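FYI - complex with iron/sulfur cluster, inputs then prediction.
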Amino acid sequence: MKSKVYFVPVKDADDIKRVSERLKALLASSGVMDFIREEDKIAVKAHFGEEGNTGYVRAEYAGVICRDIISRGAKPFLSDTNTLYKGKRTNPKDHLDLAKSHGFTKEITGCKVIIPDDTNKEDTLDVPVNGKLVKTAKLARIFVEADGIVAINHFKGHMLSGFGGAIKNIAMGCAMREGKMMQHCDVCPEVNEENCIGCGECVKICPANAIIIVSQKANVDGKKCIGCGNCAAVCPTWAMFVFSSSGESVQKKMVEYAYAALKGKAKKRAFINFAVKINKECDCWGMENPRIGPDIGILASSDPVSVDRACFDLVMKTCGKNIFKEAHPEQNSQIQLNYAKALGLGSLEYELLEA
Ligand code: SF4
Ligand code: SF4
């Protein structure tokens, strides 16, 4: 069955007044947030942009969405999880400070920002998936326990998935650091001995008893390691860190994580994709991130697969070529869409309706 995807064109993503008007029109005519009821706690999944990054969806547009939710008598909060890599979004305090410096304040968005804490066990919820690659997803409790979820997704390129949109934002962005590493990592980590302080945190968390400390340095037994990535997620000195080179495996794990994060929310979800400021890499890049496509517009749907597919098709049509393949020739971005459809996350067929 075809899903409905609503669209408004945008010519200049930084024209705050005009884009806000367009966004309001999109929300009103699409009805994608009509599932929201009074008193619902609505998690608004955002990405506050790494320091130095300007591609993230502006706070003013998050404000339009949050105020629409508030006008329905519901209680939205903005949230994102912490990153694996060292940056300004690794822990709740720095992450909150950065969000504030990027304009995500109560004055602008109308609601508060909540960042889960990876060091507090209560903030993580294990959600069974029983997928081919993920048995249990390590998700932020705050997303799982919300009454509904509205995901604000920046549609752009990505080194492992070709492009990143709704599926990726939900999968990586609702996962705690342990879960993020689980998605990225599928090979045995190596220890950077210079950085290792022999604290033993990795030994404690390893579910496969694959690590021992020898002469004050961690030592991983590759035969026992199951590639879960837990050790890299807890290591305080970044001595263990490895990313998989397999885009296919990462994309499939992402889909299984998105499946877990959206469990029980089939009728309590909305995805708003901003196909503007289309950069080569994701918004986690706090460095030069070249623009590879023009501003196209904003799309909204209750189907995460259709909204990503429609975005991809619109980008192809506008640019006359696959700019994501050009940027990341080694990745096949369609794996995430096809696998998401196969898992029943949504449809590849859609009807595009201009709002
Ligand atoms: S990746 Fe997982 S199984 Fe392998 S050493 Fe690290 S914690 Fe243990
Ligand atoms: S957690 Fe990191 S620093 Fe601590 S022993 Fe393991 S590898 Fe070394």
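The longest helix spans residues 304-319. The chain has a mean pLDDT of 93.
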